[in-house]
Amino acid sequence: MPTPPSSASSTRLFVGNLHPSVSDYDLVQLFQPYGHLTKLDVVFHRSGPLRGKPKGFAFVEFSKREDSLRAKVELDGKPFKAGRTLSVNFANQVDEATGGGTGKAVRRRHDDDELRPTTLSLVKNARQVKGGADAKIAAMEAKLAALRQKKAGGGGEAEESSPKSSSSSALKRAPASAGLPVKPPPSSSSSTPPR
């Protein structure tokens, strides 16, 4: 018979490979014959498309170490709902295998994650211009001025052009070095398609 860990968490069992249809009631009915249950934690997804659905594992805590050991020995590897084989271990053994601490430390980590900003939100906030709509407009105007200056050749101040003068300059052909090939002039025999 395996010896349980000597820590206080030796009354807490990890129960894995649970079918999504397994309920709290099912787990209580399964573990209650082995002793007095003090706590039952079924773990659910906290975010994403599976939010609110069970993750497929739970934690069961007994009042006595002997009860938890007996439940572990008798239920580990037994088939349960939908033909799934239960995986029952002491909670601290499972967490050590995954590189974590006790089950409570894992739970605290999840609580901290809710308060910590995500990488995506940090990137979005870094790109945002502070100061409201006026600051955003000023940033856009500065960017347009930089683009005009670059288009003018990068030397000196870019000339302020009105919408009327910019439309006439837009009709000019871009030089061949602009990155796109120059469109050939229309030929006199444009009625026959090329083959």
Automatic annotation (TrEMBL):
Biased composition (Pro residues): 182-195
Keyword RNA-binding carried by entry: yes
Domain RRM as annotated: residue spans: 11-93
Disordered as annotated region, ranges: 95-118, 147-195
SMART domains registered for this protein in UniProt: RRM (SM00360)
Keyword RNA-binding appears in the UniProt entry: yes
Organism for this UniProt entry: Jaminaea rosea
Top-rank lineage group of the source organism: Eukaryota
Protein name per UniProt: RNA-binding domain-containing protein
Cited InterPro entries: Nucleotide-bd_a/b_plait_sf, RBD_domain_sf, RRM_dom, SLIRP/GR-RBP-like
Keywords on record: RNA-binding
Compositionally biased residues, Low complexity: 163-178
GO molecular function: RNA binding
